[in-house]
Amino acid sequence: MKNFVLIVMLSAVFSNNQYPSENQINAMIKESMQLIWETAMESKKTINHITPNVREELLSNLCASAPNTSFHTHCDLSDSLAAVSSDATASVFVSDDSQASWTENSSVDIIGTQGYENTWGAITNMPNINNSVWWYLSGSVASEALGLELGQATVSQSPYNMNNAWPTPNNLLATLANDNAGETSADQDILTLKASYSDDRLYTSLNLAGNCCNEGGFFGPWNLYVIAIVNPDNIENPVAYAYAYGNGGFGQLYPGIYKIQGDFLSGEVGDFGVLSTDFDYDLSGNSLQARSLLSTITNDPDWGPWPNSFNGVGLVGVTISAGLSGLSISTEILDTSDVGVLVMTTQNQESNMEPVLSNPEYNDGSLCITYTDADNNLATMSDVAVDDMVFIMTPNSHVYSEGVTFCADIGSGYNTATLWFSDGASNISLEVEIGDGCQAGDANGDNIINVLDIVSTTNIILNGGDNPCSDVNNDGDINVLDVVSLVNLILGDRN
C-alpha cells in the first residue's frame, strides 16, 4: 500500500508516461523472473546433456603423488569423453602454502601409455613444497563436440573456504564460467562467474567489466544482477533458485534468495518469490559477491535429494534490465555467462605414509605385485629389474588406497627380481624370489635335458662360471655330483 501511495503522490509531479504503474512494475518483475527461470532451465539442460561425459567421469579416480617438488596428478576419463578429449580441457591448481596462492597447470594431457590409456595426467613444478599440499581439478568441454550448441560447460572443484572468509578473497574462489567482454555496457557486462564452499555455506562471485552494481534510474529501467542456482540431478523439477541483487520497483525489487517455479509444457513461470533474505552480499569493486547457508536452498522441498551425485550445484550468471519503452514494458537479458558446476570437494594431504608392496606372483613370465598406499598416492615409479634389464610395471586400476595390482612381462630364466616403487616422496624396494629361473639340468636353456646339458655343465666345472640351472642337486655348488645327477635325469627319462 505504501508503494502505491508513493506512486500516486509522484503522479502530481510527473505525467503518466514518465513512470511505471504498480501493475507495470509487477509485470516487469514477473518478466524478469521469467528470464531468470528460462536461463536456469537452459543451464540445467546444458548440464544434463553434457554431464554423462563430464560429471563423475571427468573427476573420476582423482589421485596424486605424495607432496614433492614434482607433483603428479591423475584423473580418469570415460570412454565417451576420451573420444572427444581434443575438445576437452583441464587445469590442475596446486597450493603449497595452505591455499594462500595457487599454481595453475593447464598442461593436462592424456597419458596414453599402457595402464593409463584414458587417464589425464599433469606434473606441476612446486619447488617450495613440503609435507602439505592442496589441489583441485577443473575441466570443461565444448558442447559442440557432443553435437550440441549450448556453450562451454565447466565442472570444477574449488578451494575450500574453511574459515568462512568474507568477502571471499580471490584465492578461495574457482572460476566456473567465462563470458566475452563488450556484449553490453560495462556495469552489466559479465566476465567471469566464480564460486567456493565451506562446511555449511555456498560462496559466489559475479565479476563485471565495470563497477558493481548499477541499480538503474529511480523510475527505471532497473538492473538486476543474478547468480542462478540449479540442482543438476533434479532435471524433472522446473524450479530455479537465485542470489539476486536489485533495488527498484519502488521497494518491490530487493536483494534476496529467490525461488522461481515454472512449467516445462507452457514454458511459463507460475510462481515466484523471495525464499529468504538471510544472505550476505558485497558490492565492492567489480564484483557482486553473495553467500548463504547452503541449507537455505537444499532444505527446500523442491530442491531434491542432497547431497546429489555431483556433491555440487549448477550456476549461471545473468544481468537483466527492466523498464518501460514508451508505454510498453521492456525487460531483457543484458548478458549471460557460460554454465558451471561447482563440485564441493578439494584434495589435501598434510603428511605421508609409505606405500606397501605385497603378494608377489610370478606365472608364465609375468610378475605381479600389489601396491597399496593409505594416502591414495599414485606410483611415480613402478620398475622391476632382472639381471641388467628394467621393465615398467603397469596397474590394473587407479584406486591406490584399496590396493592396485602392477604387472610386467619379464620372461623367464631368472631367479630373483628387484621391484622399485615410489609414491613421489618415499622410495621402497622389494626383492622377489621368482624360483623358476630354469628347469634343473637345462644348462643351455633349450627346454630339453640331454647330453648337450652335460657338456655345458662340464665346461662350467672345468672353466669356472655360474649357471643355477646346472646346480641339479641344489646344494649351491656346481661339481661332478651335478653331472651324476644330470646323467641320472637323462637315463631316467629314457627308461
Search tags:
single chain, 495 residues, alpha+beta, Immunoglobulin-like, 3 domains, 12-stranded mixed beta sheet, 5-stranded antiparallel beta sheet, 6 helices, elongated
Structure description:
This protein has 495 residues and is an alpha+beta fold. It has 3 domains: 21-52 and 148-347, Immunoglobulin-like, CATH 2.60.40; 352-433, Immunoglobulin-like, CATH 2.60.40; 451-494, no CATH class. It is 16% helix and 38% strand. The protein is built from 6 helices and 29 strands. It has helices at 2-10, 22-54, 79-83, 295-298, 451-463, 480-494; strands at 60-64, 70-76, 88-95, 103-105, 109-110, 119-125, 133-142, 152-156, 174-178, 190-197, 201-208, 222-230, 239-245, 256-262, 269-276, 280-282, 287-293, 312-325, 328-336, 339-343, 347-349, 356-363, 366-372, 381-386, 389-392, 394-395, 404-409, 416-422, 427-433. The strands form 5 sheets. Strands 3, 4, 7, 8, 12, 13, 14, 15, 18, 19, 20 and 21 form a 12-stranded mixed sheet that branches. A 5-stranded antiparallel sheet has the order 9-10-11-17-16. Strand 3 and strand 4 form a beta hairpin. Helix 5 runs antiparallel to helix 6 (480-494). It is elongated. Mean pLDDT is 87; it is low at 1-17.
